[in-house]
Amino acid sequence: MARSLISLVLFAACLTAQAQAPDPHLQEEGSAAMLSHCTFAHGYRHGYEEGYHIGNTDINMGRLARTKLTDLRDLKTGYSSNFGPKKMFEEGFHAGLKAGYNDGYLGRNFCAVETLRRVAASLQAENSPSDPNHSYFDQGFVTGYKNGLEHGSSDPAASALIDFHMVDCAQSQPASQRDVPAQPSYCEGYRRGFALGHADGFVLRPEGSRLEASK
User: Angle at which helices 86-105 and 39-60 pack, to 10 degrees?
Assistant: First the structure.
């Protein structure tokens, strides 16, 4: 009886330790600050890794490429409540899943780490007084990613990688006057998200894509 009780206590302690263990992605050199700032980008990092593994396995097993995200059901996103809004994390996860699967299936390099480091360059780890919870940064990143994805997939003159410093955020205006102080944080996220989305859009063009978003 005593041994069983001790075993249960040790098992519970192990589970607690695992639950409290820091996410290794939040400690990655070069991109940790952005992943902690941006729930979408953090979800993207998880999704890319998962998608790359599945794509690589599929091609090595001689399977036909999956054509819809609905083919990849019941995946564990790795979400934790301290990461930020779940919906935004999952949105990033599915974006990364799509890009990662495509790269893994086509035998490309695992590029998420290097790409995220590039778009996270020079980002300060400290919180902005006007955006302490990074919510504006996150919103800007998501909007930028979607716009960049569209531009990268449709512009025939587009190149795979662009300098996020050159991305124009002039059309991204705050929703109300009270949001004006947080505009720089929003634009900071927008530019970086646009660069990431643009890179994905370029490689996910119709002629090269193997995984389409589910309808």
Answer: 30
